[in-house]
Specification:
Helix 16 runs antiparallel to helix 22 (689-713), helix 22 packs antiparallel against helix 29 and helix 26 (762-780) packs antiparallel against helix 27 (787-797). The longest helix is centred in the middle third of the chain and has 33 residues, at 527-559. This protein has five domains: 1-200 and 340-365 and 434-502, no CATH class; 206-331, Rossmann fold, CATH 3.40.50; 367-429, Dna Ligase, domain 1, CATH 3.30.1490.270; 525-684, no CATH class; 686-849, no CATH class. By secondary structure, it is an alpha+beta fold. Helix content is 45%, strand content 11%. It contains 29 helices and 20 strands. This is Molybdopterin oxidoreductase. Pfam families: Alpha-E (PF04168), CP_ATPgrasp_2 (PF14403).
């Protein structure tokens, strides 16, 4: 084992794996034994498997200004941080005590304010903080819990003692990432994970869900008592709990969508909610549903543009008043950001003795608030050993390490501190512990050591705070980094808490005790989610059609001479223009005089149509599909999501010198992925209301394309080769099996138009659309949304194939153009009726008007 230990980076810091003699600590022995006994190739495979699973699962963390954007992969080290049971018990008890203390402080500051009146908290510390929200003073809290979700960042000093570095109280992030880390790393070391009896995480999330349900029922009872027309929840009926997100561009949106899917909560944005009659309502396809609890990820002042921040586009107007009435539980309570100020750290020991009657179990890193004159003078005298940080969020400043400053910089900083002392704190600079990390150079894996911090999570229950066993470990991005943060490129770790007892398997899924508990439809499908599903369906089909159109065009270019494809070549190029795959003429006059490109001119344009990152290329369209799927992350399966993710990565790399053969290779791979996505959509998704909206999008998109495709094809000469038409519509195999002859107009048009058994035919799309639309008409009693499409269907049936199914037929062309216009109108009507809420909204017992 010593050969492994020799790879570690030794320093004067506490080493999580090694003791002062350089020997492995007892709780690391099992992991090190396994690493030592394995060939480097085996460990390389573990590293690659972890990286692949992170990549394929689409686990992302958006670092602002990073070129990867929302597709930046989450960094996860293969080696976990291991904590023995006796040490964890102290950490858990300390975190629970601290959460209890901070909850009491929050209740007092927004309640009786005895701490301010007695001088235990300086008024300047509270009222100078822009996180203090005067409109939230006096808001009641069920069971006196305002701090429901709490996280604390811990670090270990050289003497081995854990210290609190900072508190996270506004909308703590990372618990979902900790859960994903566990899923991935436990599969990398399955036997070791089992044999070490690692404490499971699911019990914490079960406590979270049960607690929110408990308080949600209390809210529902209050709504029923105070708001006319609202009825109490039935026996066994769960309250509606939602996760409020800032949206997909937030750095932790992936985690939010993952938690929403894991907990079974709708993930909503501010415009998904509305306030009516003192209640928060979720806008669903079936009408308005009362919301009972909100687990928020939006900053305090952005939650309510009416009372808190008028410039916010993220929150819900009137939310503060609903909380004031006790008609919604907000976790965490509005104003909780106040507790994140580092200036509070120095006051917590005395507050703990005053409010809890006991000493603080785990101290904070020594902290001085410069708003106190004595503290300011100490900071000025000891600046070389301190780190200066902002006391309030409104002060935009990165940590300043005193040891880095030259004399003139020190003088400038001291002048700034004296000018606005309330705005700054100073903390002792602590050399935090190092944990082992596994690097992956070209030849063999190596173990190094980097600075590590631990974020531990607590959630309030009616019986006290539950603690997530382990939490989220984070390591610095380099040996010299003194700030451990994911926004600066840090890496995460799974955290293993050893248990003395074997851990039983645990499922978060609730038990169904009777037929009354059965659910066969999603009653909380938001209008935004339905719209996302609708457009995901459209983008899926549109991308496949683009790929098929490009494949047919490139094949024609490669396999036929200009003379052999003379009849259809202009039409094929025109369809590529319609898809914006080829550059369109600049104005109407140029368009009317447009002539097809020559072979030498169109070849680079077709390559660009596949790979360009600047236009409506296939690559760009795939990224749009990825973004749409990203908005649906909690609604689609992991396998479905992985396919979308792998597809998007196919086009991320820029291809500077690609050939037509390269383009064809990528198109073929993309088509395979698109077909797989079709399988997930049609065979793996429950046919609920959300699926029907997605199916509507798919059928509308396909019907529109078929109308455009055939109306343009009718302009081709009679002798044109129709095989490409069958290729683009995926009907070539069917045609050959039926006719065993060269494609002709009458049978081709019959197959594409009239064959109800052909899933790629026009009549198949219309029949499905009419069916789903009539079901929606029956549900909301509005009627008529399918009427125009039914008229098109009847008109199609009445066409005489012998007379109309031929090149240049104007009757068929007119029908195709009219049907295309009807689909445009249909899409607009769906938007107005289900997505935009342009019409008046109604309550839970009514339907959308």
């Amino acid at each position: 084992m010593q050969s492994v230990l020799n790879q570690l980076y030794f320093s004067d810091r506490y080493n999580e794996m090694l003791d002062s003699n350089g020997s492995a600590r007892p709780h690391w022995q099992a992991l090190l034994t396994q690493i030592e006994s394995e060939e480097p190739a085996v460990m390389r495979k573990r590293i690659e498997a972890v990286q692949r699973q992170v990549r394929d699962n689409g686990v992302t963390y958006n670092v602002y200004a990073d070129t990867h954007g929302v597709q930046r992969p989450w960094d996860l080290d293969v080696l976990p941080l291991i904590i023995p049971q006796n040490e964890w018990q102290h950490i858990a008890a300390s975190v629970a005590q601290r959460a209890t203390l901070l909850n009491k402080v929050l209740l007092d500051v927004y309640g009786e304010q005895r701490l301010l009146a007695s001088g235990q908290l300086p008024p300047a510390l509270i009222y100078g903080h822009n996180g203090f929200l005067p409109s939230c003073v006096g808001i009641p809290h069920y069971d006196n819990v305002a701090l429901h979700h709490y996280a604390v960042d811990l670090a270990r000093a050289p003497n081995g003692q854990w210290w609190v570095v900072s508190d996270r109280t506004q909308g703590p992030t990372g618990a979902g990432y900790a859960l994903e880390n566990r899923t991935i790393i436990s599969s990398a070391f399955p036997e070791l994970f089992r044999d070490l009896n690692i404490e499971r995480l699911s019990g914490f999330f079960a406590s979270m869900r049960d607690s929110l349900a408990h308080w949600g029922h209390r809210v529902a009872d209050n709504q029923a008592q105070t708001v006319p027309g609202i009825t109490a929840l039935g026996q066994g009926e769960p309250p509606l709990v939602v996760i409020l997100t800032p949206g997909p561009y937030n750095e932790t949106y992936h985690e939010q969508s993952f938690l929403a899917g894991y907990l079974g909560y709708p993930l909503v944005q501010g415009n998904d909610l509305t306030v009516r009659n003192g209640i928060v309502w979720l806008k669903t396809i079936a009408g308005l549903r009362p919301v009972h609890a909100i687990l928020r990820r939006i900053d305090d002042d952005y939650c309510d543009p009416l009372e808190l921040n008028s410039g916010s586009l993220l929150g819900v107007a009137g939310l503060t008043q609903v909380a004031r009435l006790g008609n919604v539980l907000i976790a965490n309570a509005l104003g909780a950001n106040l507790l994140q100020s580092g200036a509070l750290l120095g006051f917590l020991p005395s507050l703990c003795r005053s409010l809890l009657g006991e000493s603080l179990r785990m101290p904070s890193v020594a902290t001085w608030w410069c708003g106190e004159p004595a503290a300011l003078e100490y900071v000025v005298q000891h600046l070389d050993t301190l780190v200066i940080k902002p006391a309030y969020p409104q002060v935009r400043s990165s940590p300043i390490f005193g040891e880095d400053l030259n004399p003139s910089q020190k003088e400038a900083l001291i002048a700034k501190l004296r000018a606005q002392p309330d705005h700054y704190i100073a903390q002792e600079q602590v050399d935090i512990s190092h944990a082992p990390v596994l690097t992956h150079p070209q030849h063999q894996p190596q173990i190094g050591a980097l600075a590590v911090s631990l974020r531990v999570y607590a959630f309030a229950t009616p019986k006290g705070y539950a603690i997530l066993p382990g939490g989220l470990s984070r390591v610095a991005s380099g040996k010299d980094d003194r700030v451990v943060t994911m926004q600066r490129g840090g890496t995460s770790k799974d955290t293993w808490v050893l248990s003395h007892d074997r851990q039983p398997p645990f499922s978060l899924l609730r038990k169904t005790n009777s037929s009354l508990d059965l659910v066969r439809e999603n009653a909380y499908l938001s209008s935004r989610m339905a719209e996302n599903l609708f457009w995901y369906g459209r983008y899926s089909v549109r991308n496949l059609q683009k790929a098929l159109m490009l494949r047919a065009t490139i094949r024609s270019l490669l396999e036929y001479t200009p003379e052999m494809r003379e009849g259809e070549w202009a039409t094929m190029q025109g369809l590529c223009l319609w898809f914006d795959l080829l550059p369109a003429p600049e104005d109407e006059e140029a368009l009317s005089n447009w002539q097809p490109w020559t072979d030498s001119d169109i070849e680079p344009l077709l390559i660009q149509a596949v790979f360009s990152q600047q236009s409506s290329s296939l690559a760009t369209s795939v990224q749009q599909l990825f973004q749409q799927a990203f908005n649906l992350r909690e609604r689609i399966s992991n396998d479905h999501w992985r396919t979308v993710n792998v597809l998007s990565r196919l086009f991320i790399t820029r291809h500077q010198h690609a050939t037509l053969q390269d383009a064809m290779s990528h198109i073929e791979q993309a088509i395979n992925h698109f077909v797989t996505l079709t399988g997930f959509a049609m065979d793996w998704m429950t046919r609920d209301l959300g699926w029907r909206f997605m199916s509507l999008g798919r059928r509308i998109e396909r019907l529109q394309f078929m109308c455009v495709l055939m109306s343009r094809a009718l302009n081709m000469p009679m002798h044109s080769n129709l095989e490409w038409l069958l290729q683009v519509t995926n009907n070539l195999v069917t045609y050959r099996a039926r006719y065993a002859a060269q494609p002709e107009w009458l049978p081709v048009l019959d197959l594409l138009l009239m064959d109800g058994n052909n899933p790629n035919s026009v009549v198949f799309q219309i029949k499905g659309l009419v069916k789903y639309l009539e079901e929606m008409d029956a549900q909301d009693n509005a009627g008529g949304i399918a009427a125009e499409l039914k008229d098109c269907w009847q008109a199609l049936i009445q066409l005489d194939p012998d007379q109309c199914f031929s090149a240049g037929n104007q009757t068929l062309a007119a029908w195709l153009n009219h049907t295309y216009e009807v689909t445009l109108h249909l899409s607009d009507r769906l938007n107005v009726r289900f997505f935009s809420y342009a019409n008046p909204l109604v309550t839970q017992d009514s339907q959308v008007s």
